[in-house]
Write a structure and sequence with these properties.
- The structure holds two protein chains of two kinds.
- Chain A folds into three domains: about 170 residues, P-loop containing nucleotide triphosphate hydrolases (Rossmann fold, 3-Layer(aba) Sandwich); about 60 residues; about 60 residues.
- In chain A, helix 8 crosses helix 10.
- A six-stranded mixed sheet of chain A has the order 6-7-8-3-9-10, with helices on both faces. Chain A has a four-stranded antiparallel sheet with strand order 2-1-4-5.
- By secondary structure, chain A is of the alpha/beta class.
- Chain B is mainly α.
- Chain B has one domain.
- Chain B is built from ten helices and no strands.
- In chain B, about 50% of the residues are buried.
- Classes of the chains: A alpha/beta, B mainly alpha.
- Chains A and B meet through helix 2 and helix 3 of A and helix 1, helix 3 and helix 4 of B.
- The complex binds adenosine-5'-diphosphate and magnesium ion.
- Adenosine-5'-diphosphate binds next to strand 2 and helix 1 of chain A.
């Protein structure tokens, strides 16, 4: 039951399981993407990210569990659900015979929008494909092919966008422009689920992330919270002259002129300095290195072992 | 369901099918036409002058409707199957699955696309035949029953396009597709009476030939074009329509149980 105050989720994945023969690729995964949110599904290769996405877009049937897009079950009312979602696959799709513009027209028509020139022209410009609109896919560069696939996913103005490793094997410039595009889409109110193993990017653009490993969801939460709860910041104190050996539970290293501490993200530096009862005039410099998602991720995976 | 989802997706798939075969028109229309012309030359003109058919009809005129139907059937099948197979290869068949298309929209649009290519080849074969008859016999090959001709060509084209859809969706490799074409389709067409009348067969073979649905397709077209047939046309029509329905259901089933995934 949805209450009036709780908007229906853009995507709800409930106890989803997927077996390929004996291989359990997805083992009972539950999460949801809120409207207008950018949600990152993180995990190493083989974690089951693409399998989940394939079930959402009905390319593969679920073994059990269910998926709803804006409250519409993808298995029960798949046609209605499909009008609400756009999908950018991990692998490049080759359309042998057709040009960029024809492809976008066909996809638009598949969605019942036969006259959609404004939207198609807008996307061609927005994705810098306008000058290449009469080329066939095989004549495009890798980056252009990726952008075409994003255009295909957006031509029917879906409210939920699925990006499966959109930046794998993409150069830095294009990657940055893709993230910018994702931000713009978010402003337009599009909800986004993306999978990636570039953690730094997930950290920059995802509101929430979930960590998937061997088909199981290990952690889920707001990106910053997850980073804070799972990482530590490193503090290095440099002294003007040699000091006595320090004693502190977070101390990791000390030599004559320097001491290094590993603080839980939530602990302040003031607290540390207070505990140490140091004369501040002895300090030459303080270095702070914040933990990041990469550390959090490594931490979660290490916990598994 | 919104009205735009009723016709829009169907028309778009049809559009895509037609523009695909137009883009490769040499393979899809010209080559089949050259084939038909070769048959006309070798069997119709060269060998045909020695073959006698009942009712004072020349072998050339007898052969033309068979070749028209053979071209129509082959090309309707080819159009649907190669469209699907190349889309499996490139991965864009997945787009069909991810979009809000119904199975029956896909089946009808693809089979209509196949029929249109089949009819294109059929009409061109007819025009070539017209020329051959005029040169060889100084006569114009008129159409005896235009409505019946179109009817049988349409049923045949649709049926074979639907077969093409089924085979392509179920195929797991090019080999499987060409096995079906080579071991089932081509023999059935050749043994369906393109080149011979039932009367010319041993009675035992006649019974066997009557089990081949293509006999009715081909004789229907022959009746439509030159007014003679080995079987009565209403019966041929009934059997052909029945075959169409069976193959339509088969195609729908292939979309349900076959694969949209890329190879
Ligand atoms: N079509 C398939 N058939 C059999 N096994 C598959 C198939 N697709 C994926 N798998 C297996 O499922 C697991 C998860 O794969 P996948 O969902 O692609 O992971 P990810 O996208 O996170 O890299 C892997 O062990 C993979 O080998
Ligand atoms: Mg993947």
């Amino acid at each position: 039951m949805q209450s009036a105050f709780q908007p229906v989720a853009a995507l709800r994945v409930n106890d989803l399981k997927k077996d390929y023969g004996k291989n359990q690729a997805v083992k009972g995964v539950t999460f949801s993407v809120k409207p207008g949110e950018v949600f990152g599904l993180l995990g190493p290769n083989g974690a089951g990210k693409t399998s989940i996405i394939s079930i959402i877009v009905t390319l593969e049937p679920a073994t059990s569990g269910c998926v709803e897009i804006f409250g519409v079950d993808v298995a029960q009312q798949s046609r209605l659900a499909k009008t609400k979602v756009g999908w950018v696959p991990q692998e490049i799709i080759n359309h042998g015979y057709f040009t960029v513009e024809e492809i976008l027209k066909f996809i638009s028509g598949f969605h019942g929008r036969r006259k959609n020139k404004d939207r198609i022209d807008y996307l061609l410009h927005r994705l810098s494909l306008w000058n290449h609109r009469n080329k066939k896919v095989k004549e495009l560069s890798g980056g252009m092919k990726r952008r075409l696939m994003i255009g295909k996913a957006l031509v029917h103005e879906p409210k939920l966008l699925l990006l499966d490793e959109p930046t794998a094997g993409v150069d830095l410039e294009l990657r940055l422009s893709l993230w910018k595009f994702v931000e713009d889409l978010k402003k337009e109110g599009v909800s986004i689920l993306l999978t990636t193993h570039y953690l730094e990017e997930a950290e920059n653009i995802c509101d929430r992330v979930a960590v998937l490993h061997h088909g199981e969801l290990k952690k889920i939460g707001p990106t910053q919270e997850l980073v804070q709860s799972l990482t530590s910041r490193m503090i290095r104190l440099h002294f003007k002259r040699e000091i006595r050996p320090l004693k502190h539970p977070y101390l990791t290293l000390q030599n004559q002129m320097m001491a290094e501490f590993s603080l839980p993200s939530a602990t302040g530096i003031g607290e540390l300095l207070n505990d140490l009862q140091l004369d501040l005039r002895m300090l030459n410099d303080i270095q702070i290195i914040e933990g990041n998602l990469e550390d959090a991720f490594r931490f979660i995976l290490e916990q598994q072992k | 369901m919104k009205n735009s989802l009723r016709w829009g997706p169907f028309l778009t798939v049809l559009d895509r099918e037609i523009s695909r075969f137009i883009k490769v028109i040499v393979q899809t229309v010209i080559t089949p036409l050259v084939n038909s012309v070769l048959y006309l030359l070798i069997f119709g003109v060269s060998l045909g002058s020695h073959i006698k058919i009942h009712d004072g009809i020349s072998y050339l005129s007898f052969l033309i409707p068979g070749l028209i139907m053979m071209g129509c059937l082959n090309n309707a099948f080819q159009n649907a199957s190669s469209s699907i197979i190349t889309a499996k290869f490139g991965g864009d068949l997945e787009d069909f699955r991810v979009a809000p298309l119904t199975r029956s929209q896909i089946v009808w649009a693809m089979s209509l696309g196949g029929l249109i290519r089949g009819l294109t080849v059929g009409v061109m074969t007819y025009l070539a035949g017209l020329l051959f008859v005029f040169i060889a016999e100084g006569q114009i090959l008129g159409i005896a029953h235009p409505f019946i001709l179109i009817l049988f060509l349409s049923i045949g084209g649709l049926t074979f396009a639907k077969l093409g859809i089924s085979v392509a969706f179920w195929s797991k490799s090019f080999d499987q597709l060409s096995a079906v074409t080579g071991f089932i389709l081509t023999p059935l067409i050749y043994l369906g009476g393109v080149f011979f009348t039932l009367e010319s067969l041993h009675p035992w073979w006649q019974q066997l030939a009557k089990l081949n649905p293509l006999l009715y397709f081909i004789n229907g077209v022959r009746y439509g074009l030159i007014g003679v047939s080995d079987v009565s046309w209403p019966m041929a029509c009934g059997i052909s329509l029945f075959t169409l329905v069976v193959f339509h259901l088969l195609a729908l089933r292939s979309l349900r149980t076959g694969s949209f995934l890329r190879w």
